[in-house]
Amino acid sequence: MSKAQRATIDALMRQAPFDGGLAPEQMRKDFEIQMTSGPAPAGVRVTPSVLGGRPALTVEPEGSPAAGTIVYFHGGGWVFGSPATALQLTAALVRRTGVRAVSVDYRLAPEHPFPAAVEDGLAAYRDLLDQGVPADRIVLAGESAGGGLGITTLLTAREAGLPMPAAAVALSPGLDLTLSGESMTTKHGVDPLFTRADLAALFAHYLAGQDPEQPLLSPALHADPTGLPPLLLQAGSNEVLLEDATRFAARAAAAGVDVRLDVTADVPHVFQAFEGMLDEADAALDRAAHFITAALADPVG
Fold first, then answer.
1. Is 213 a catalytic site residue?
2. I want to staple 177 with a disulfide (CB 3.0 to 4.6 A). Which of 31, 104, 155, 212 is the partner?
């Protein structure tokens, strides 16, 4: 693995650190430009669709797709982002697995604060089941806030009595809106993108005055993961959100869940987005794809 590549990515991210004090409209515009200015992803077909009553993008491999569906949730702190901003990551998983993905345009804060995104995640999963897609042929995946949304979708699906999907993959997930993890302090300045203060300003839009000390807002602290399907949590050691992943993984393991915690050294938040620029990104995506294909190859019952 290349120290030079890691240093280049770190310097690149420090040129445009996140500003949580910007208006949501400006955050959305800036992020959309940043994440969609490159070429369209190769090796996939992308078509507009609808899932759970929300707009979506269906991303399919160029050849015949393998059995299964990835439900993908984009990042953006529950305030910005879209299926288009996550398209490169979604396509990376589709190419590696051969499985189609449906990326959901869930509602965003501040217009739609908690629990709107969680309701949309559950509606998307329920819609697939209602279409006749077996639960054991579905994998939930997402990055950052979307990774957290995948976990809370599992929790709400379990409470609704729905069957669990085959697995879930969370890339640098946001799982603690109390921002109480030690990594918020120990990784301050090491993280080239976020600070606790900027995240607090961002998450305030989603919280809308609600108490973050509850399972669907801070599952790393308060959720009961009992009965969840196999989980893969990936994070970088340089991110302030590191302990969101490590603490939830510990809770899941204590509850008897098959959970894999995959921490890559000296890389930032959602480092997987640097596919083709960072060896660690490609390797992590390869591991995530292997996890997904293995889960779909071992249907329950």
1. no
2. 212
